[in-house]
Amino acid sequence: MNPSFDPLGVTRRHFFKQAAAGIGGLALSSMLGGRAYGSSAETPVSFPNFAPKAKRVIYLFQSGGPSQLDLFDDKPLLREKNGQPLPDFVRGGQRLTGMSAQQSSIPLAGSQFKFQQYGQSGATFSELLPHTAGIADELCIVKSMFTEAINHDPAITFFQTGSELAGRPSLGSWLSYGLGSANANLPSFIVLVSAGQGDQPLYSRLWGSGFLDSKYQGVQFRPGKNPVLYLSNPDGICQSGRRAMLDQMNELNRIQFEKELDPEIESRIAQYEMAFRMQTSVPDITDLSSEPESTFALYGEDSKKPGTFAANCLLARRLAERGVRFIQLYHQGWDQHGNLPSSIRGQCKETDQASAALVRDLKQRGLLEDTLVVWGGEFGRTAYSQGVLTKDNYGRDHHPRCFTIWMAGGGVKPGITYGQTDAYGYNIVGADGNPISPDKHHYEPGAVHVHDLQATMLHLLGIDHTMLTSTHQGRRFRLTDVHGNVVKELLA
Questions:
Q1: Helix residue ranges, H only, 261-396
Q2: Is residue 272 part of a domain?
Q3: Which of 2, 110, 304, 316 pairs with 469 at a CA distance of 20 to 30 A?
């Protein structure tokens, strides 16, 4: 059954024809009350199913895996033992990637950057993040994130879809499916990718709708004259001509729907109509010329350059103002296996000011309270150096066992740091200070799995993650698969 099917647009004759095929009753029970099934019984659920704290999400995804040890999680012991081998008792037999598993030694690498505490919260940041440090008391910092994937593609896919395997609906698609749109003239899920960044590929399936209706997939906005591909009228086609063509095409599609009763045909009609409305709304929303100089000063000089992370952060604020439900930014280039000290400086210069500016800007406009901002990558980096360690240079390999993200606004508790890692920055530790075994991460307080983060995000939006499901190939699927817990300690 396609969960996007709308029974209100189907005639009585069509309904009984579907029922005769054995799916009509299922379609009716699914659709009359909402867009998804409850997971405990085949009963309709309407979302949000309790009062939400957040109305929208801006997800600043830092693709490649930022080094938490050089940005957030200061480890003096690594500087003290710089160059010494990683002790076996710390590693505990945990797997390494193929890129460092064959090294003759895996020397500990202390960060070259200075750290200090900021704000009343006393949160720790490195010198690379002066602007983010300036909003320390707005942030909910999680130092005990962990994931199951050790390589980029499955790890990014896991964060975006809840599964390491491609083909599942993305987080933004699930929200569009469950909550619908708050602006009839813009998609509910919009994607912005920083131009010309990094060598790790990003695939459009990361913002795809999977087995959900195609109308729930993300729409990528690009820099330049045509932010959305194929949206503008070709030369010689006027708006009235476009309208007449769409009317005729819609009529043909309705005839086809009468014959086939395929809900995707109605989705196609709806998408054509959305594209027509976007011909006016998109140029308006992407034109930053009306922004005052004070705004560009807040976000940084790069915000005047279309396609930069800073410009995309400013555009994200404008989209949030207009009710876009889920805004996903991707910034590549954090995959620093070598030359980390110089490379990470450049990454922070591109992202630090704009990330903090977005939080400040939302707050001063009264939007931060119901906008959840999330910053983080797909995993962290190792405490040891990949490749040769020198006095002033090192690299770090992928590390899924523990890493840092931060959130702000949208109902999370500001000015807190949640979770902790051991003195080597290699393992998550519990409240007693002892490392938590990786096979117990799912069950120990303080450790935050990818599905826990997703469940918490949905909770802030008024959604019980166990109830937002869709039946596909005879099985109910959900973003958090078969587990995930709301981390209540993060909630305001």
A1: 263-286, 293-299, 309-321, 340-364
A2: no
A3: 316
Sign of CA dihedral 404, 406, 412, 415: positive
From the centroid of its chain, how far is CA 68?
18
- Amino acid symbol at 444: E
> Closest by alpha carbon to 5, among 25, 33, 37, 28?
28
Non-local (6+) Cβ contacts of 195 within 8 A are 223, 306, 307, 308
* Residue 443: domain span: 47-230+299-490
Any idea what the CATH number is for the domain that residue 68 is in? 3.40.720
E-assigned strand segments in 51-166: 56-62, 115-118, 123-126, 139-146
The one-letter amino acid code at 7 reads P
Domain assignment present for 263? no
CA distance 171 to 206: 9
- Reported as a pLDDT band with limits 50, 70 and 90, residue 261 is confident
- Burial of 421-446, coded b for 16+ CB within 10 Å and e otherwise, reads bbbbbbbbbbeeeebbebeebeeeeb
- The upper half-sphere exposure of residue 141, i.e. CA atoms within 13 Å in the direction of its Cβ, equals 24
Residue 41 included in any domain: no
Residue 168's pLDDT is what? Answer: 97
Residue 266 pLDDT > 90: no
Total domains in the chain come to 1
Please report how the helices 450-460 and 171-179 are oriented relative to each other, as an axis angle in degrees rounded to 10.
Answer: 30
Q: What is the pLDDT of residue 198?
A: 66
Strands 416-418 and 326-331: unpaired
Quickly list DSSP for 3-58: TT--GGGS-HHHHHHHHHTT-HHHHHHHHTT-SEE-SSSS-EE-SS-S--S-SEEE
Residues 341-394 have pLDDT tens digits of 999 999 999 999 999 999 999 999 999 999 999 999 999 999 999 989 999 999
Q: How far is it, in rounded angstroms, from Cα 105 to Cα 63?
A: 28
Bridge partners of 381, per DSSP, are 398
79 found inside a domain = yes
Give CA–CA dist 326/219, Å, rounded. 11
Residue listed under structure tokens 């070598």? 338
Q: How far apart are CA 16 and CA 305, in angstroms?
A: 56
* pLDDT beyond 50 at 38: no
Is the bond preceding 48 in cis, omega lying within 30 degrees of 0? yes
Place of tokens 């879809």: 161
Structure tokens at 238: 């006027």
